[in-house]
Amino acid sequence: MVLPSPNGSTIAASAGNSRIAAGSLLNASAVGHWLACHGYGTAERPVALIASGERWADGGLRPALEDLLGAGAIATVLREQVGDTLSPEATAAAIAFQATPDVKAAVTACSSGRELIAGGFAQDVAIASELNLCTTVPLLVDGAFTAAG
C-alpha cells in the first residue's frame, strides 16, 4: 500500500545520507519497535520524528493532525521500548496521540480529512486513519522505499 505524501516525499528526498524510515498511523508500532531494536531513540543514536504536514496552495506549510498523531503513536511505542529519553517535542506528540480517544474520528474531522472526504477520498481517509494495520517498515534505500529486513 502506498499513500502519497508530497511534503513527506520532499523531506525524505532532501535528507541526504540520513537513514529514513516512513511511518504513519498505519505502521506506528512496527516503526517504533524497529527503531528501538536498531538502537534509535537513545543519546547515542538520536532519531528525528517529523510530522511532515501539508502545503497550502500558496506553498506555505500547513500542519496536519494526522501526521502529528502518527509521530505521536511512534513516539509512544519508542518511549515504551527505550525509556523516557524523548525530546520535549516527541513527548508532546506522544501526549497528543495518547489524549486522542478516537484517532479515526479525529482524522476524519480535521481539516485535511474533511478536505479529502469532500474531494471524494473518504476511503483513503478511512484507511490512513487505521492504527497499526501494517507491519512493514519502509526504508529509503537508493532513492526508493523498500521493506526493512
Task: Give a written overview of the molecule.
- With 149 residues, the chain is mainly alpha-helical.
- It has one domain: putative 2-phosphosulfolactate phosphatase (Alpha-Beta Complex).
- Helices cover 46% and strands 8% of the residues.
- The chain is built from seven helices and four strands.
- The strands form two sheets. A two-stranded antiparallel ribbon has the order 1-2. It has a two-stranded antiparallel ribbon with strand order 3-4.
- Strand 3 and strand 4 form a beta hairpin.
- It is globular.
- The two termini are 17 Å apart.
Poorly predicted ranges? none
Number of separate strands: 4
Radius of gyration: 15 Å
In helices, the fraction of residues equals: 40-55%
**Distinct helical segment count:** 7
N-to-C terminal Cα separation, in Å?
17 Å
Overall mean pLDDT stands at 91
Protein name: Probable 2-phosphosulfolactate phosphatase
Organism: Streptomyces ovatisporus
InterPro entries: ComB-like, ComB-like_sf
